[in-house]
Amino acid sequence: MSRKEKPYIRPYRPADRAAVYDVCVRLADAGGDARGLYRDDDLMPDIFAGPYLHLEPGLAFVLDDGERAVGYVIGAADTAAFAEAFRREWLPLVADRYPRAERPGTPDEYMTELLHTPERMVLPELTGHPAHLHIDILPEYQGAGHGRALMYRLLAALREAGVPRVHLGMLTANTGARRFYDRLGFYEIPVSDAGPVTYLGRSTQTGAGGAAADRGGVMWR
């Protein structure tokens, strides 16, 4: 398939890892290019992409343009279990590359602290939305329905696994991403002390009313 043909969605394969990392870092600055922002361009992917590819490859799907992955959606079916596996299986693979600072003070050190504290993902307000996800698509492939298709592919996989609801965390400043999630029926989940992050959730159902009708897991305060 040539680049002129329509991109398609397929399951992630290990050979896609470099392309997924590339997509991740190109969109890691609130939707903008984060290459060169940190000492190591793999820092952001090693936090927000690599562990999912390593620990839950069955919940990873890519948008393929015929030559490489140009977008992806990745997820974890059980956030609490994922955080435990992250510490047990993923962190030992990358910890030496990113030593933890005693008192984080630089952007690199703050992001490295996130890497070393996977338990940060487990929040009581999100218990009713046990799964979580990340999605990224290169800018030139956005706005053509690929994001919706990727999202629905993951929602179907989660639904088949018996997961009723999913959540995600996004930088509040990324207003473009928020509009995208709003169109897909995500709703805000109030989380105390969320800092610069907004948490959104929805049902894994994709039928009529599936997203908006089921907010039973939201713990309103």
TrEMBL record:
Xref: CDD domains: NAT_SF
Gene Ontology MF terms: acyltransferase activity, transferring groups other than amino-acyl groups
Record's keyword terms, sorted: Transferase
Pfam families reported for this sequence: Acetyltransf_1 (PF00583)
InterPro entries (UniProt xref): Acyl_CoA_acyltransferase, Glycosyl_Hydrolase_84, GNAT_dom
Record-annotated N-acetyltransferase domain positions: 7-206
Listed name of the protein: GNAT family N-acetyltransferase
